[in-house]
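SAMPLE LOG
Freezer: B-3
Tube label: C17
Construct: single chain, 362 aa
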Amino acid sequence: MDVPLRVLFIIAGLTGIHSIRVSEVSVEAGGSISIPCLYLPQYTNHVKYLCKGYHWSSCTYEVKTDQKNSTKFSISDNKLLNIFTVTVNELTIGDLDYWCAVEINRRADVKNYFHLSVTTGTRSLYVANQQTPAFQGGDVTIDCYHRNPGEMSWCRMGGSCVTTSGSMDGTWVTINTSVPNVFSVTMRGLRTESSGWYLCVSGKLQFPVHLTVTDQPTTKTPNEVDLSSVSAGATPTTVQEGPNRNASFGLMQTLIISSVLIFAFMAALFFWFMLTRHKQNKSASSAKNEAEEEVTYCVVKPTRNLSSQVIHDCRGDHKSYTIHNNKAAEEVTYSVVKPTRKPLRQVVAEDENVTYSTLALR
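STRUCTURE (predicted):
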């Protein structure tokens, strides 16, 4: 870097550009890079622009905040942080020298030079993702890959730097260099104020990283209406859930359906058991009744004195039968066997057609 350029850096520092800024970045050909440019609060409403060229006096405007962006160049202005960001896409070997600048009416514009070292191989200093999201109250780890030996540091644009572990704007920063060629930065206890641009610094190289800290997402059920966003007469909108939320809801639905099916199965099993038991009891009762109906009860009356007749009462079928005996009665026992439920048909016969049997007891 020649002497006039160093003088320009000194002048830039005196005219309002902060000391911690981007001066040289290693980039990959064909890729893109976003460069943050700081300015003082009094220039919030001024026009910002990107100028291309090694010499300030001969550089050309590429993009301005009061003009439309192009495919190659884009610019955006964060007036709350007093940082405007320029992005260069489709990098080539010719994308080397640029100036961040702020228009100043009736005075010289405020400017800051930075150099892009375009390579087709491995970059000397880089981060895998230039845009890093994180949640409030959480932690984030950013790995800075480098090839050059020497002291590394982690800086905040417009703020302080740390080389080991320490505090940075209310956030605790831990540095880990145990892995060769990796400068690992962990920030704990993040706040929304932690959002902004940071720099991995290795010697004369810097690589900008933008950290965006947001609130933790609230847990809401699917199709839940956000009442705070519904105004009078407005149509409520449903909350769109992410894939993990849909998966949780699907699991819950599966568990509920499974529980209902198990309950229904147990209820059906219990009903079947009670019905089977009722049928068994009913069958046993019917069998008992049928058995009782098939029994014929007879009363046999032995006699000594009556020689003319012996009376047997059989009431199994509610009928009476009388058998006459003309012989002298002794101790005789008569029995009637009735093996069928059908009513007996009374047979009347003459004495000569009937055979009588006598059983003598000894």
